[in-house]
Amino acid sequence: SGGGRLVWIDRNGQQVGVVNAPGEFHNPALMSDGQRVLVDGNGVWAADLYRGTATRLVQDGSMPIPSPDGTMLLFNAVRESGIADLYVRAIDGTNDELLFHSTENVLPNDWTRDGQFIVYVSRNPERGRDIWLLPMQAPRTPVPFARGRANEIQAQVSPDGKWIAYASDESGAYEVYVEAFPKGGSKRAVSSGGGAKPQWRADGRELFYLSVDRLLMAAP
Q: pLDDT grade, residue 51 (50/70/90)?
């Protein structure tokens, strides 16, 4: 299916609720208040998980990520430069700030809990997709984290800021890996037989991901 619904599932994988928000949404990012989730679908929306309503925040953005304190919205959009750049705006505001422009399309992945880094993926026609870190302190010079010949995507930093999980096809198929953050090292595979879309549990003691046959998996 090209679209998707927002649903709640329990620990046993059973559906326990549906968010009756209008439209088809992608790339959900739960906000710190636990009541709203940012999604994209013909722009960036904030969906209220309890009221079942959605409000469009940005007309042309995608890949939304909330700031750690829930006051700011990070997203990418194709505007003046003709490629996908990173923008931020206040959640309740209307003025966008160009945060980062590159010669390559960039996709935001995460915003660390301490607010120090934005993690993004850059698309390069020769190297494929690489993971970069954008420091939020001036001069905001990007630092490569995973920049190999393989594709590295879907990066998520652990709540304590010590680890980063991501998917890489270095073995020939996408698998989920965990590595020390932000310096790298101590890399190990989490999935076996295919995996992608890693997400940390709120306390950082468990990692969820999708298997190659679209099953939701959990690893301690």
A: confident
